[in-house]
Design goal:
683 residues, DNA Primase, Chain A, DNA primase DNAg catalytic core, N-terminal domain, 5-stranded mixed beta sheet, 28 helices, globular
């Protein structure tokens, strides 16, 4: 209906002391200027959870959980952003104000009505399972599947009886109700006559809940062998199947700290395992497991086990999951693959062997580090020289999808041992393999090699995780120097340039990631000449975006002393977009501190984005040594902005040159010919 003003959130965070918020929930101990404790969000024996009273944020070096006081209350109390603000406002003795907005009111009112109608639909289906004249058939089906009444109640299992208008008659009393039922996916409206009818008929109904326990959609299973066996709600304003996991809410309710999450293939698998007190299973909603699913799961655990049938379909599904898993495999995380015997599924297996033996099988799943090499070696004799060469060309681009870090380095070391190739050769193979063919721009090269299409990967996410194409090669294989002159950089202040290089190098070194080759969020692997001192390296090879972001996070007031700003750029990559958003916020609120900024970030971009920002600063503080602290930050950030602008201009010039060249000199207008000559003369 209304929103909480950002000014109030800033004021609330300024009044709170995060130590006083955390300490009643997690007992803190003084550790230098900070406080420490065992992390409340994952099991550990050695404290890795740190609370900084100076920065007013928390960070766990074990699981990566981070945020400010509001974020901590949301995670620890499992509450919404609004509930967390209201609880903390009471602690501070403040009344939460509301900002009226017609647009917000209409949108929130409509969402509220959608949640309400879906909740009523869930109640209707559960009632039908208990009282419908034909209830014996679905009850007998559930009993034959071994489900108890208690577990069916816990998961809200219901029944959609035969007929075209049962739900319509029960809940669609008004035109507005019918519109909400249609928008929520519960009714289908025919185009020819606009008549509405029930989407789900004669099916066992499984309500799908979001992270707050609200019904957002349904899955329905037939009682016989008719098709489709499973039918899911369509995409709606409150339900996106690529971002939800069935059973995750129930798993979180049953476990304050999820040691691991088991990803299975069906609703019945989740419920059957829960009945055997294995309450950490989730399922995707009729789609392959993608990066968004894994990002959601890794918010609640550091270990994921995929459970697949051992047949060809199961292995194909495992390969798809592997491609998504590679981009999510940050240090400290673990992913394993459990393959069941053909014809088995978790539902039937747990009933045959019991929970204890089933859990033992889970622990013996194939680690990702073994499965990736197993997949890459399929059909190849790796004992032969030719086989090792083919194996390397498949495995290297797959490993290149791994995020920068120790795990990635160990995997490339493992590949080098398996093939006998040097790290330099493997990096060359990686770069060559990642040149995407123009005929299939939406599919990663490694997926094509495996014969597995990529799924559920948003463009921004994929770009952020995949390694860049070979820097000196275009998509059609023609090197830029054949079509466009080399671009030399304008003169810059050598001292400022050295400082920015050194500053960027410090942050890149901790995560073992090479700074950006050019603007964008894709990182290269280290080259053989990385031993060259920072002052002697090309300033274009370092990461001005990361350096500028870290400087502004550490000292928001620094923006006041810098006149130049980065140029705008359409479709910015994630790292650059974050810098633009940061600058925009600081220009509107020049006196903000990091605590204010973190609160704004969580409210505007969500808790996950807020945690990424806090993690960035935490990593920055770890690598900030005396030499970096002694630099002139104004000179460093001015030079970082100048580098960003030069790179953007270079990209724009390259694009303009390529467009003109594609037209052909004979087809250019006089103005375009002048521009063409100017681009050549200028560079």
């Amino acid at each position: 209906m209304s929103r909480i003003p950002q000014t109030f959130i800033d004021d609330l965070l300024n009044r709170l002391d995060i130590v006083e918020v955390v300490d009643p929930r997690v007992k803190l101990k003084k550790a230098g200027k900070n406080y420490s404790a065992c992390c409340p969000f994952h099991d550990e024996k050695t404290p890795s959870f740190t609370v900084s009273p100076d920065k007013q944020f928390y960070y766990c070096f074990g699981c990566g959980a981070s945020g400010n006081a509001i974020g901590f209350v949301m995670e620890y109390d499992r509450s919404s952003f609004v509930d967390a603000v209201e609880n903390l406002a009471k602690l501070a003795g403040l009344q939460v104000p509301r900002e009226e907005s017609r647009t917000n009111y209409v949108q929130e009112s409509r969402q509220k009505n959608l949640y309400a109608i879906l909740d009523k639909a869930s109640t209707f289906y559960q009632t039908q399972l208990k009282s419908h004249p034909q209830k014996q058939r679905p009850v007998r089906y559930l009993q034959n599947r071994g489900l108890s009444g208690a577990i069916a109640r816990d998961f809200g299992v219901g029944y959609a009886p035969p007929g075209w208008d049962n739900l319509l008659k029960a809940l669609g009393q008004t035109e507005a109700d019918q519109e909400y039922l249609t928008e929520s996916g519960m009714l289908i409206e025919r185009d020819e006559d606009h008549r509405r009818y029930d989407r789900f008929r004669e099916r066992i109904m499984f309500p799908i809940l979001d992270n707050r326990g609200r019904v957002i959609g349904f899955g329905g299973r037939v009682l016989d062998d008719s098709k489709p066996k499973y039918l899911n709600s369509p995409e709606t304003p409150v339900f996106q199947k690529g971002r939800e996991l069935y059973g995750l809410y129930q798993a979180r309710q049953a476990n304050r700290a999820l040691e691991r999450i088991l990803i299975v293939e069906g609703y019945m698998d989740v419920i059957a395992l829960a009945q055997y007190d294995i309450r950490n299973a989730v399922a995707t909603l009729g789609t392959a497991c993608g990066e968004e699913h894994l990002r959601l799961a890794f918010k609640h655990t550091q270990e994921i086990v995929f459970c697949f049938d051992g047949d060809n379909a199961g292995r194909t599904a495992a390969k798809r999951a592997l491609m998504a898993a590679l981009t999510s495999m940050e240090d400290g995380r673990q992913i394993r693959f459990l393959f069941l015997a053909e014809g088995q599924d978790p539902d039937t297996l747990v009933r045959q062997i019991g929970a204890e033996r089933f859990l033992a099988q889970i622990k013996n799943g194939v680690p990702l580090e073994d499965f990736v090499f197993e997949v890459a070696a399929e059909g190849i004799d790796i004992n032969s020289m030719d086989g090792r060469a083919r194996f390397s060309k498949i495995a290297a681009p797959m490993l290149n999808l791994l995020p920068s870090g120790i795990y990635r380095e160990l995997m490339f070391t493992n590949l080098a041992k398996r093939t006998g190739l040097s790290g330099t050769v493997l990096m060359e193979l990686t770069q060559e393999a990642l040149v995407l063919p123009t005929s299939a721009p939406k599919q990663s090269h490694s997926s094509q090699l495996l014969g597995v299409p990529t799924t559920n990967s948003s463009p921004s996410t994929t770009a952020n995780k995949a390694a860049p194409e070979t820097p000196n090669r275009s998509e059609d294989g023609v090197t830029p120097k054949d079509t466009y002159p080399d671009i030399s950089e304008p003169d810059v202040d050598p001292q400022a340039d050295h400082l920015a290089d050194y500053y960027s190098e410090q942050f890149a070194a901790q995560a073992n990631e090479l700074p950006l080759h050019e603007l964008g969020s894709q990182f290269q692997q280290r080259r053989p000449d990385d031993s060259v001192p920072a002052a002697k390296r090309s300033s274009i090879s370092l990461n001005p975006v990361r350096a500028a972001t870290l400087l502004l996070l550490d000292n928001p007031q620094l923006l006041k002393s810098v006149g130049e700003r980065p140029l705008s750029k359409e479709g910015p990559e994630p790292d650059l977009a974050r810098l633009y958003n940061l600058i925009d916020y600081l220009e509107k609120r020049p006196d903000s501190n990091f605590n204010n900024l973190l609160g704004h970030w969580g409210g505007t971009y969500g808790l996950e984005s807020q945690q990424e920002l806090a993690k960035l600063l935490a990593s920055h503080e770890l690598t900030l040594d005396a030499a970096v602290a002694a630099t002139e930050p104004q000179a460093v950030i001015r030079d970082a902005f100048a580098k960003i602008n030069r790179l953007i201009q270079q990209q724009q010039h390259k694009l303009s040159f390529a467009e003109l060249q594609a037209k052909g000199l004979a087809n250019l207008s006089d103005a375009e010919k002048d521009l063409y000559r100017e681009l050549i003369r200028k560079h």
